[in-house]
Design a protein that fits this description.
This protein has about 375 residues and is α/β, with parallel strands linked by helices. Helices cover about 40% and strands about 10% of the residues. An eight-stranded parallel beta barrel has the order 4-5-6-7-8-9-10-11, surrounded by seven helices. It is globular and about 70 Å long.
Length: about 375
C-alpha cells in the first residue's frame, strides 16, 4: 500500500448523510484502502478488549432528572489550570498520513476551529514543531520514553519550546501486541510514513541475546520504562506530566503520590494487551482511589456525546477521542474533524439538557443506571 494521495479538495466537501459523530465510522471505509482501514479500526490480538470498550458503554443507560432549569448552562471546564470550552479532547494517534495526506496538520486545524485540545503523538507523521505551527490551538505532547534518556530529554525540551502545555506519557504499550485483523488484511506501513519527530536521532544499538534469553522479556522489553525513569522525567520536565494507560486503582493512587499531575484511564483503545477490561469499567474505581479533585481523563471506545456524558458521570474530568478523529480526518480532512467535534459537543449538550444538567458538575453517577443484560 502507498501513502494516501487522495486529492486535497476532498476536504472541502462532506457527505450529506452525516447526522451524528458516529457516522464518520460508518463512512471511513469508503475513504481508505481496506488494509489501512483494518489497521486503524482494529485492535490487538483477537480484539477482546476492543469489543469490551464498546460493550461497556451499552451497559449504562441515562436516567434523567425532571423539571431542571438548564438555561445559561455550558460545557466549560478547567484542566491543569487552563480554562477549556468543553471537556472533549483529541487523543494521540500515530501516523495520521495513513488517513489523510496532510495528517496531523489537518487534525490540528480542525481542533483549533472547535476550541479542542489536541494531543500530538511522538509517532506523528509530521514533526512536533510542524504540527504546533499548523494552528494556534492548545496542544499536549504525547511522549513515549526512548531508549536513550538524552533523546527523551531532547523531545521534552522541544515540546516545551514549541508551546505544548503538558506531556502525556504513555506507559501501557512499551511493546505492541500484533493486531491479527491488520495482519490478515496484509497491512504494511508504507516506508514513506515515518515518525518525523524522531528522524534526526540515531537508531538504538542492537543487542545480541543468548539462547537462554527471551526475545520478548529480555529483547523487546529491554528499554521499557521503569519507575526510576518516570521519577527522572518528573524532575527534569518543566511541563505538567499526565500518565496514560492506567487501569488499576492502586497504580493511579501511586502515580498521584509520586507527583504525576493527572492520569488517563485507557486500555490503548484495545490496542495494548488484549484481554484487559474495558477502560470504562475501571474508571469508577480509579476516581474513588484518587479522590474528587485529582485530574482523571478517559479514553477508549468513545463514539458519541452520550458516551462522553457516561464517562463524565463515572468520574472523568475530560474525554479523549481516538479512532473517531481518524475516521473524520479520512472522510473530510480538517473540516471533517471540526464537524465531528461539533456534533459530539452538541450530542453531549443534548444529553445534559434532557438529563437536567446545567453544567458538567451536574453530571453525576446517579444519572446512570445499569441496563439489564438479556
Amino acid at each position: 500500500m502507498n501513502a494516501l494521495t487522495t486529492p486535497p479538495e476532498r476536504a472541502m466537501r462532506l457527505p450529506p448523510d452525516i447526522h451524528g459523530a458516529s457516522d464518520y465510522e460508518r463512512l471511513a471505509p469508503d475513504h481508505l484502502p481496506d488494509d489501512c482501514f483494518q489497521y486503524l479500526a482494529g485492535g490487538s490480538g483477537e480484539e477482546t478488549s476492543l469489543s469490551a470498550n464498546r460493550q461497556a458503554f451499552s451497559r449504562w443507560g441515562i436516567l434523567p432528572r425532571l423539571l431542571k432549569d438548564v438555561r445559561g448552562g455550558h460545557t466549560r471546564t478547567t484542566l491543569l489550570g487552563h480554562p477549556r470550552e468543553h471537556p472533549l479532547m483529541l487523543a494521540p494517534v500515530a501516523f495520521q498520513t495513513l488517513a489523510h495526506p496532510h495528517g496531523e496538520t489537518e487534525t490540528a486545524r480542525g481542533a483549533e476551529a472547535t476550541d479542542t485540545l489536541m494531543t500530538v503523538s511522538t509517532l506523528s507523521a509530521f514533526s512536533l514543531e510542524t504540527v504546533s505551527a499548523a494552528s494556534s490551538g492548545a496542544k499536549w505532547f504525547q511522549l513515549y520514553f526512548q531508549p536513550s534518556r538524552e533523546v527523551t530529554a531532547d523531545l521534552v525540551r522541544r515540546a516545551a519550546r514549541a508551546g505544548y502545555e503538558a506531556l502525556v506519557v504513555t506507559l501501557d504499550a512499551p511493546i505492541q501486541q500484533p493486531g491479527r485483523r491488520a495482519l490478515r488484511a496484509g497491512f504494511v506501513r508504507p516506508a514513506s510514513v515515518q515518525a518525523a519527530s524522531l528522524a534526526n536521532y540515531a537508531a538504538p544499538a542492537q543487542m545480541s541475546l543468548s539462547p537462554s534469553q527471551s526475545v520478548i522479556l529480555d529483547g523487546m522489553m529491554r528499554d521499557a520504562p521503569t519507575m526510576d525513569d518516570l521519577m527522572w522525567l518528573l524532575k527534569m520536565s518543566s511541563l505538567p506530566v499526565i500518565v496514560k494507560g492506567v487501569l488499576r486503582a492502586d497504580d493511579a493512587l501511586g502515580l498521584r503520590m509520586s507527583g504525576v499531575d493527572g492520569v488517563i484511564v485507557s486500555n490503548h483503545g484495545g490496542r495494548g494487551l488484549d484481554g484487559v477490561p474495558a477502560a470504562l469499567d475501571c474508571l469508577p474505581g480509579i476516581r474513588k482511589a484518587v479522590g474528587p479533585d485529582y485530574p482523571v481523563l478517559f479514553d477508549s471506545g468513545v463514539r458519541s456525546g452520550a458516551d462522553a456524558f457516561k464517562a463524565i458521570a463515572l468520574g472523568a474530568n475530560a474525554v479523549m477521542i481516538g479512532r473517531l478523529q481518524i475516521y473524520a480526518l479520512a472522510v473530510g480532512g480538517a473540516l471533517g474533524v471540526a464537524h465531528m467535534l461539533k456534533l459530539m459537543r452538541e450530542e453531549l449538550e443534548m444529553c445534559m439538557a434532557l438529563a437536567g444538567c446545567r453544567t458538567l458538575g451536574d453530571i453525576t453517577a446517579d444519572l446512570l443506571t445499569e441496563v439489564p443484560r438479556c
